[in-house]
């Protein structure tokens, strides 16, 4: 639950301007009020992909479990090898990966060993096979084949020791972590429960797919975009449909959503005019702030609490929905899932392929197409018309071009920040 007191306190700060809220400030304020879920469940590692660890994972075993060979070759006693002359040793057995050798290597003896084979008792070093020649029932090791004790030998526990913390609470389970858990013989992990997110669209003009459009109506696309974005983040989502701009219907929808979900997301209805009654409604139901974020697209954003649920009121325009989701909601949902050290979206510099017109004052998230130039460097151009209703721009784009608030017009060749959409959306 969001501590009510503090959200009000923040709005009394000197630099708090709800009509021109900088992107970073809004992000920081939101982060400040998030209380992650605490319920823990145990899942098989096959079901753990994308989930967040609710407890540290401690290794029950050493990895590797035994000293073993890093090479195909011969397990020997280093002290036996003459530094300046060939050394002849007696072959007393073989050690294959998974099939150890029971014999103990004594003075003047060697065991044929293969990569991953357990080091036999008595041997301390492995001579690689290219530096030794099998002869009769023995082997002749070339002078200088190894230069120190323990060469070509992997030590038990050199990757992980029993008792080591291998993963920390708050870490995301990705394919490498799942493989690593299997390598430790761990079959179940404690993860936080999934976040439940209820969402609906507001607008008298909206029609759900499957119904023919009457004059002036449009299909509701935001609910489908939001549902898809939530799936990618591993949330459990509740699609509450379209709610008309009618105070009673909206009140009922907000109440139901807040009762069944951790987070409520809406689109539309937060712009000037429409926002007025939504504002009054939400004032009674919880604590919500309306910000005009100093960004383009995605200006009006409502954020706060309804009952016990976190609330994000996104703008109605389809591109604005996606931009505000990726710039504010994504990070918040990850934090609410219990994720610690949520990485900001990676950003790098690319050169503009064509000039961009921009007025100083707002951070812009233009839809861009990144491409590799012949010299290997990255250049970026916009997808064209940047209207916030042009959803095809999000589909054509492979990055956001992030232009800082203070930037004005930019010439071709100027370095700009880009956020690749790959891996993000
Ligand atoms: P609003 O913020 O409600 O004033 O909406 C701004 C613009 O976005 C209007 O042109 C709406 O028709 C459009 N819009 C609002 N909600 C949706 C939606 N769910 N799907 C597609 N377009 C929408
Ligand atoms: Mg509307």
Structure explained in plain terms:
The structure is a single chain. The chain is of the alpha/beta class. The chain has four domains: 159 residues, 3-Layer(aba) Sandwich (Molybdenum Cofactor Biosythetic Enzyme, Chain A), CATH 3.40.980; 52 residues, Molybdopterin biosynthesis moea protein, domain 2 (Alpha-Beta Complex), CATH 3.90.105; 87 residues, Molybdopterin biosynthesis moeA protein, domain 3 (Beta Complex); 73 residues, MoeA, C-terminal, domain IV (Beta-clip, Beta Barrel). It is built from eight helices and 26 strands. The chain has a six-stranded mixed sheet with strand order 7-4-6-5-9-8, with no helix packed on it. A hairpin with a 5-residue loop joins strand 23 and strand 24. The longest helix is centred in the last third of the chain and has 19 residues. It is elongated and about 95 Å long. Bound molecules: adenosine monophosphate and magnesium ion (MG). Adenosine monophosphate (AMP) binds next to helix 4.
Write a brief caption for the model.
The chain has 425 residues and is α/β, with parallel strands linked by helices. It is 20% helix and 30% strand. Strand 8 (132-135) and strand 9 form a beta hairpin.
Any chance you could write out the topology, listing elements then pairs?
Blueprint: H1 4-10, H2 23-32, E1 40-44, E2 57-58, E3 68-69, E4 73-76, E5 87-95, E6 109-113, E7 125-128, E8 132-135, E9 138-141, E10 153-154, E11 165-167, H3 175-183, E12 188-192, E13 196-202, E14 206-207, E15 218-219, H4 222-232, E16 236-243, H5 247-260, E17 263-267, H6 274-285, E18 286-292, E19 295-296, E20 300-306, E21 309-314, H7 318-336, E22 348-352, E23 363-372, E24 378-382, H8 392-396, E25 399-403, E26 415-420
Parallel strand pairs: 5-6, 13-16, 13-17, 14-15, 17-21, 19-23, 22-24
Antiparallel strand pairs: 1-12, 2-11, 3-10, 4-6, 4-7, 5-9, 8-9, 18-20, 20-21, 22-26, 23-24, 23-25, 25-26
Helix pairs in contact: 2-7, 4-7, 5-6
């Amino acid at each position: 639950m969001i501590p009510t007191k503090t959200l009000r306190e923040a709005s009394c700060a000197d630099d708090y301007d709800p009509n021109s809220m900088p992107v970073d400030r809004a992000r920081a304020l939101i982060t400040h009020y998030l209380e992650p879920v605490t319920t823990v469940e145990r899942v098989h590692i096959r079901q753990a992909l994308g989930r967040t660890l609710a407890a540290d994972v401690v290794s029950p075993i050493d990895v590797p479990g035994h000293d073993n060979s890093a090479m195909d070759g011969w397990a020997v006693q280093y002290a036996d090898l003459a530094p300046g002359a060939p050394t002849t040793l007696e072959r007393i057995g073989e050690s294959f990966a998974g099939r150890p050798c029971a014999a103990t290597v004594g003075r003047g003896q060697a065991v044929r060993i293969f990569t991953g084979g357990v080091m036999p008792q008595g041997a301390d070093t492995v001579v690689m096979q290219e530096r030794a020649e099998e002869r009769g029932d023995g082997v002749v090791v070339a002078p200088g084949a190894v230069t120190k004790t323990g060469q070509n030998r992997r030590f038990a526990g050199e990757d992980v020791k029993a008792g080591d913390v291998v993963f920390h609470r708050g870490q995301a389970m990705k394919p490498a972590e799942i493989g690593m858990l299997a390598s430790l013989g761990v079959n179940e992990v404690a993860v936080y429960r999934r976040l439940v997110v209820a969402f609906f669209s507001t607008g008298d003009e909206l029609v759900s797919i499957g119904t023919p459009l009457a004059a002036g109506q449009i299909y509701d696309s935001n609910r489908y975009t939001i549902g898809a974005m939530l799936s990618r983040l591993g949330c459990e989502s509740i699609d509450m449909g379209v709610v008309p701009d009618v105070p009673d219907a909206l009140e009922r929808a907000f109440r139901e959503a807040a009762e069944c979900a951790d987070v409520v997301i809406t689109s539309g209805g937060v712009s000037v005019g429409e926002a007025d009654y939504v504002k009054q409604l939400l004032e009674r139901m919880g604590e919500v702030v309306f910000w005009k974020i100093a960004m383009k697209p995605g200006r009006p954003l409502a954020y706060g609490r309804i009952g016990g649920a976190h609330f994000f009121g996104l703008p109605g325009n389809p591109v604005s929905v996606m931009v505000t989701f990726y710039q504010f909601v994504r990070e918040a949902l990850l934090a609410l899932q219990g994720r610690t050290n949520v990485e900001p979206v990676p950003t790098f510099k690319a050169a503009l392929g064509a000039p961009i017109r921009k007025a100083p004052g707002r951070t812009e998230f233009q839809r861009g197409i990144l491409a590799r130039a012949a010299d290997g460097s990255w250049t970026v151009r916009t997808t064209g018309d940047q209207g916030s209703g042009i959803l095809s721009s999000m589909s054509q784009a492979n990055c956001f071009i992030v232009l800082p608030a203070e930037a004005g017009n930019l010439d071709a060749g100027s370095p700009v920040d880009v956020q690749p959409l790959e891996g993000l959306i």
